[in-house]
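Pasting two entries for a bug report.
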Amino acid sequence: MSIGVLVVDDSATMRGLIAAALKRDPDIEVLGFANDPIEAREQIKKLNPDVVTLDVEMPKMNGIEFLEKIMRLRPTPVVMVSTLTQAGADVTLAALELGAVDCIGKPVGGVTAQEAFSELTAKVKAAARARVKPYSGPAAPVERDSDYRASDCVLAIGSSTGGVEALMTILATFPATCPPTVITQHMPATFTKSFAARLDKISGAHVTEAKDGDRLVPGHVYLAPGGDLHMEVAGVSQPVIRLRAGEPVNGHRPSVDVLFESMAKLHRPTVGVILTGMGRDGAAGLLTMRQSGARTLGQDESSSVVYGMPRVAFEIGAVERQYGLSRMGPAILNLCSAADHQRTA
């Protein structure tokens, strides 16, 4: 059974390029087009698409306003098609918070449409399987764990599709004394700095985009920069961030597997967590962490937007225990505290 897609963009050229990319996959059918949110609303009612690709900047109503209406009234899997600019990153992150499943950048500079949209069909297919929930307004303030104290434990988190919501939910619970935390989230290069800034505003921890040579210290969270480098953690007495060149692993750079594999070599208590995402990146690395003595957690199926990465990790025995998103933050902090206590006992 084919996946029906509605393409929403105010540029006829861009609608054509998106449609051409989607039509290369025989499992996807382009049901129709809309050049603004008003027309899109009627097309959604008429065509009942499985997935909508949505432009961020459109006339009559911007993509964010329209997305909020969709997610409140008729929750539908949406893939945002964004300009890879600072403004485009900020708006797209807001869209992902509202419930958009994923995003993809428009071709810019010397990048061809075929290169820019090379992952579009995979993202649309993942979106068609995603669990989308009605948007019920901004999340209520979260009570942070004020009892948690600085730990020698190092925490590593890997996520992909659906990871924006998951990471925001988890880091909102982190206090200023949280364990040093490294995160690899699959995301375009121009997005990670903006995402780190958004996380920093809602968390008790200090969240930054990671830089090569950053020392891991309690109360800090380091987000891998998107783009051309993998992120690793290295060092004996003082762990530091290492950003290195390398071929994509599992189709990703930075790769969660690369981060987790480096974590398994640290001589200190560690905790690994794998969250929502399509594919299998991170599963093998998390297993290596567990085999090295680390504690490991995975997001459960019911709370994952796409239960791909955590499912593979669970099935190969990399995950000690699964938690829903609402319980994951406290579970992580408890495990980090327990891991540190076991090391020092």
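Entry 2 (this is the one that rendered wrong in the viewer):
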Amino acid sequence: MLSSTDWPGKRLGLPESGSRSIARVGVRLAAFAIDWALAYVIAMAFFEGDGFVMMSIYAVMQIAMIATAGGSIGHLIMRMRVVRLDGRYNGVLRPALRTLLICVVIPAVIWDSDQRGMHDRLAGTVLVRV
């Protein structure tokens, strides 16, 4: 539990606000909506809106974008990045694990006191502001 002098990310050595602070819920949801809408449009345009195809498109976009650009299209539009706590390159396995857990849904809605979802904790990543 956070005390009145703590903020999400303090335990992780992140600032309270500004660059590299924990991205808050509103911008996370907006980024997710952008990414899901893109996957939906692609699935509708080329695959008749098949749900499994839409989830697969979403997953491929997440893994590719996080591994190469540090964030999905939605993350980048909302000025966020997925980073490792040690500051090193994410690689492909961490974004893949993170995305798989998001697709399972449950880990993405279980958060700790630093507002990190279980998917980020298990992948060793954190979603921060740019």
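Dev reply: Rendering is fixed now. As a check, the viewer should reflect this: The CA atoms of residues 83 and 126 lie 6 Å apart.
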